[in-house]
Design brief:
The chain is of the alpha/beta class. Helices cover 31% and strands 27% of the residues. It contains 5 helices and 9 strands. It has helices spanning 42-53, 55-60, 73-83, 96-100, 139-151, and strands at 12-14, 20-22, 30-35, 63-69, 88-91, 105-108, 111-114, 117-121, 127-132. The strands form 3 sheets. Strands 5-4-3-8-9 form a 5-stranded mixed β-sheet. The longest helix is centred in the C-terminal third of the chain and has 13 residues, at 139-151.
Length: 153
């Protein structure tokens, strides 16, 4: 796992619309990168809905949020459309960012999935906090409160 204070790994990944999103796009802003196991599964749906519902709260606090999984762009597009998500979901089909960030995997019924993990990155690109084995319900509120505390607001 990455050390707190270290730079978050640079990335260049397509979102659900096929647009390339990079770490540099968020320079000068707080960023939450949340890793989730699989599109259109119960916990991942809860997370996507929660971040969509609170997007304006995050934006008001100067925080951007992106989700990352190993699903492809088409899967992300379908997932976003099905639940009207307004957040970007990034397709890390090779697992390059997930591996670089030190996200672990777990076996579920013979298939390996990336563990639900959230990273808080400050406006300078440094990793400020890691949440491992995240429970989807209410996690967005914990993130918002913790980042506001880091911001001193």
């Amino acid at each position: 796992m990455l050390a707190l204070g270290s730079p978050f790994p640079k990335f260049s990944l397509p979102n659900q619309d096929g647009k390339t999103v990079t770490l540099g796009d968020f320079a000068g802003k707080w960023l939450v990168v949340y890793v989730y196991p699989k599109d259109d599964t119960p916990g991942c749906t809860i997370q996507g809905k929660s971040f969509t519902a609170t997007r304006s709260d995050f934006q008001a606090a100067g925080i951007d949020v992106v989700g990352v999984s190993q699903d492809d762009v088409a899967s992300h597009k379908n997932f976003c459309n099905k639940f009207s998500f307004t957040i970007d979901l990034l397709a890390d089909t090779t697992g390059g960012l997930l591996k670089a960030a030190g996200v672990t995997q777990s076996d579920y019924k013979g298939t390996m999935y990336w563990n639900r993990t959230s990273f808080v990155i400050d406006p300078k690109g440094a990793l400020r906090k890691i949440y491992q084995n995240v429970k989807p319900e209410g996690h967005e509120q914990t993130l918002l409160a913790d980042i506001k505390a880091m911001q001193g607001t």
